[in-house]
UniProtKB/TrEMBL annotation:
<keyword id="KW-0812">Transmembrane</keyword>
<feature type="transmembrane region" description="Helical">
    <location>
        <begin position="307"/>
        <end position="333"/>
    </location>
</feature>
<feature type="transmembrane region" description="Helical">
    <location>
        <begin position="110"/>
        <end position="133"/>
    </location>
</feature>
<dbReference type="InterPro" id="IPR000515">
    <property type="entry name" value="MetI-like"/>
</dbReference>
<feature type="transmembrane region" description="Helical">
    <location>
        <begin position="399"/>
        <end position="417"/>
    </location>
</feature>
<keyword id="KW-0997">Cell inner membrane</keyword>
<feature type="transmembrane region" description="Helical">
    <location>
        <begin position="201"/>
        <end position="223"/>
    </location>
</feature>
<feature type="transmembrane region" description="Helical">
    <location>
        <begin position="365"/>
        <end position="387"/>
    </location>
</feature>
<keyword id="KW-1003">Cell membrane</keyword>
<feature type="domain" description="ABC transmembrane type-1">
    <location>
        <begin position="74"/>
        <end position="273"/>
    </location>
</feature>
<feature type="transmembrane region" description="Helical">
    <location>
        <begin position="22"/>
        <end position="48"/>
    </location>
</feature>
<protein>
    <submittedName>
        <fullName>ABC transporter permease</fullName>
    </submittedName>
</protein>
<keyword id="KW-0813">Transport</keyword>
<comment type="similarity">
    <text>Belongs to the binding-protein-dependent transport system permease family.</text>
</comment>
<keyword id="KW-1133">Transmembrane helix</keyword>
<feature type="transmembrane region" description="Helical">
    <location>
        <begin position="153"/>
        <end position="180"/>
    </location>
</feature>
<dbReference type="Pfam" id="PF00528">
    <property type="entry name" value="BPD_transp_1"/>
</dbReference>
Amino acid sequence: MTAVPTTAAPRARRLSATPGQIVLALAIAAFLLLFLVLPVGTVLHAAFTEKGTGSFTLINFYDFVRTELFMRSLWNSFYVSAMSVVWASVFALPLAYLTTRFEFRGAAIVQTLGFLPLIMPPFVGAVAMQLFFGRNGSVNLLLDDWFGFKIGFMEGLNGVVLVQSIHYFPFILINLSAALRNIDRAMEEAAQNLGCSGFRLFRRIVFPLALPGYLAGASLVFVKVFDDLATPLLLNVKDMLAPQAYLRVTSIGIADPMGYVISVVLIAASVLAMWLSAAALKGRDYATTQRGGGGLARRRMRPGEAVLGYGVVLLILALVLAPHLGLLLLSFATVWSFSPLPDGYTVAHYARVFGESSLYIKNTLIYATLAGGIDVVLGIAIAYLVLRTRLVGREWLDWAASAALAIPGVVLGIGYLRSFYGITLPDGTPLAALWITIVLALAIRRLPYALRACHAALQQISVSLEEAAENLGATKARTVRRVVVPLMAGGILAGFVTSFATAAVELSATLMLVQSNSDAPLAYGLYVFMQSAAGRGPGAALGVVAVLLVALCTYLSHLVIERGQKAKGLGH
């Protein structure tokens, strides 16, 4: 028997808010106001304030525009972000199309391997990519020996583009694959019957219908690349906006207005990218009559197509998995310099990591666990207020929490320094120097992920179950605790794991807030190790630990989601 979704019940259930719900909403609003709106507002205020007088001014932006370094950094950031989207599309489109439109053996493996780059911090991948594709990396050494020339894969902005496109292309792969699966393939069959085939079919029919999924992934790639701080710094590319914001604040100080002006430009670029993505789809209809292919089987590839298809897929996978292989080899290497492979192998780097750097791992587990816990609590509360009450302003809570996605980590870190460094404890310690500030920054940064997971989970729970509990005498609080939260368990755990995994490798915000090594998380330790040639072996070992940690969390997230889907299937 198929369950029929109802919409009347939720509307009936949204009664006037209770005092407890009002208090809860005010508490959430206060948290978001204090740890998101205030820091970002402080950055905006400082950018539009004249130094010395405190009056409103646009002179800071005029200085930004007339400074050649900043304008070059702005152009470079747009160029790197746009080219990363282009190359990420080159990697993602063949994998998505071949695995969803043809009988492709190993399609599930290809999709899984294609997701792996996301579980490695991009700045760690930058170091590994240099070992293979740098001026004296494995590929160029072989090219020089065999053909007498080298290719500047990792020179300047090219290196940033290569690393970022490899790291973030899974965003396009995941969204585009889902969009392609939902297209009614009967439309493709109709086009083929009218003589449309090959690339023209893809260009005129398939890709336009999958455009929402593609743009969702492409906008994420653009925003993530535009805001990234550590990758350009590790590749010694400083003339980009995020590195410039960091360098201005750390070298000149938090009183320098240009760091805040650059931060405002970063926010504006992120919002603009998301707005353009939404505007490109506005007013267009992408709906099809059936989902999941309309029952049509995937087409079998001809021998020539199979050779070409598998060749392209293997080439792309070899490229996108190169950072993981390079990191693994480096973590065991005694010396790896001016040679295609390491000169020898050792486990000493891992011994050093677990001996000297175990504090980084412990701090990461504490920070990411607390941040994930905060996120799911807020996610449950906001989702409940939005979906189950008629509380005035509840949509603003949802919007404010989701807006954190558009705030670059370096901007949030600068905002925390500006807002909280002047507030001191009785012992004179600045509030911004406390480790709990790092936890709060991580929680704010990853809140949108947990919120969306909790929101989706609550949407799938019938209001009639809550009404039945209350009709039997349960209070609203008891109903939420004993009925709603247990039924949301899958979504809650998935949201926690997602927040935990992404917070564990967050660097942009923590790089601004870490005041001592004793409070540093794993991502900060990775960045410090990777600064010197001598530290890159232990850094690689620490990077492998980070990848395994995030991979485990990702696996648990998928396991939870699959179990939840099976349970729902049995329930129906």
